[in-house]
């Protein structure tokens, strides 16, 4: 009798393995607003390659860049609804839905990509990820360093303090948290999808935009602008995410393969972006752009006071700003921007 039961068990296991091997691959459509040459677009190709190696035939990864499938903002909604499997998600869009985490969008809080990573792997990060998953039906996989955001202006002008940006029409993503940051910087924020920024600068619909230098380079904004002002106002990251419903259907080995591929993609992205940032100031100068250095202390003091004095700071989780500051690697904490 025991031999018969054993034979049945072995047969069932073999049948299950056969069905698993022959199962249709899981579709992972990824939609992002960034252009093909942008490093964090290229990082998605690394994600696809690593995932195919780790789980051959189990996933069908399709990458849609330049907002070709869903425009910026709509991609997040699509993942929440289950119409899209993966995208990049900013802390700003998260803060729009979970205002207690608006503190994560405050300029001059995070010091480096490592600081972001340390936060996301901490107990605070675990709580943050769990709350996002419950509220937005989105699983945060890994933070990818986007770069340190600087001001990029259509015309040359004096920018020493936030007062100098009064009346400047500065493009921001169409998000309450992003628009608030534009006001904190002293500018007049204008909501605009990323794909429209080049034309907006070219025609004068906007006077300025803010992005990390690698993004300015990839999108060729240097062709339609005359100045970069190194405000260093936001060490920025975006999260590679997957729909929670998709994630929960994966088995443990598939989850490990997706997570490991996401971690590797973001690590590759971080290394490439930091190396590129180091070279781009000279490149922009060679293209005729003026690269200026404002009074960073004046910007930091003005911007953080704007945040801390606002009603939105009353919604922040108590004590988190101090705890995140304490997580900064010593080398980063000692830097004076």
TrEMBL record:
Protein name as annotated: DctP family TRAP transporter solute-binding subunit
GO cellular component terms listed in the entry, alphabetical order: outer membrane-bounded periplasmic space
Coiled coil: none
Organism encoding this protein: Jiella flava
Keyword Transport: yes
Keywords: Signal, Transport
Subcellular location: Cell envelope
Main location as per UniProt: other
Pfam families listed in its UniProt record: DctP
Matching InterPro entries: DctP_fam, TRAP_DctP, TRAP_DctP_sf
Gene Ontology BP term (one): transmembrane transport
Taxonomy, superkingdom: Bacteria
Similarity comment text for this entry: Belongs to the bacterial solute-binding protein 7 family.
Annotated signal sequence range: 1-23
């Amino acid at each position: 009798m025991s031999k018969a039961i054993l034979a049945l068990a072995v047969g069932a296991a073999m049948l299950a393995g056969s069905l698993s091997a022959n199962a249709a691959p899981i579709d992972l459509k990824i939609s992002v607003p960034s252009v093909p040459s942008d490093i964090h677009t290229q990082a998605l190709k690394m994600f696809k390659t690593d995932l195919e190696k780790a789980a051959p035939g189990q996933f069908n990864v399709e990458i849609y860049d330049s907002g070709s499938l869903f425009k910026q903002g709509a991609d997040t909604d699509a993942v929440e609804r289950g119409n899209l499997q993966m995208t990049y998600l900013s802390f700003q869009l998260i803060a729009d839905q979970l205002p207690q985490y608006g503190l994560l969008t405050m300029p001059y809080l995070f010091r480096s990509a490592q600081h972001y990573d340390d936060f996301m792997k901490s107990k605070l990060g675990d709580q943050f990820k769990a709350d996002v998953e419950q509220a937005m039906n989105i699983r945060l996989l890994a933070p990818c360093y986007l770069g340190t955001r600087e001001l990029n202006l259509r015309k040359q002008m004096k920018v020493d303090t936030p007062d100098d940006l009064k009346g400047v029409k500065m493009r921001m993503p169409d998000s309450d948290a992003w628009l608030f940051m534009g006001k904190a910087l002293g500018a007049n924020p204008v909501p605009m999808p990323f794909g429209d920024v080049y034309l907006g600068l070219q025609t004068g619909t906007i006077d300025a935009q803010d992005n990390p230098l690698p993004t300015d380079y990839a999108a060729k904004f240097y062709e339609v602008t005359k100045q970069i002002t190194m405000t260093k106002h936001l060490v920025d990251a975006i999260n590679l995410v997957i729909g929670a419903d998709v994630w929960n259907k994966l088995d443990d080995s598939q989850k490990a393969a997706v997570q490991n591929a996401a971690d590797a993609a973001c690590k590759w992205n971080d290394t490439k972006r930091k190396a590129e940032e180091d070279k781009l100031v000279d490149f922009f100068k060679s293209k005729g752009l003026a690269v200026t250095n404002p009074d960073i202390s004046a910007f930091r003091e003005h911007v953080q006071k704007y945040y801390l004095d606002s009603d939105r700071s009353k919604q922040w989780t108590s004590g988190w700003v101090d705890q995140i500051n304490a997580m900064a690697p010593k080398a980063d904490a000692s830097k004076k921007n």
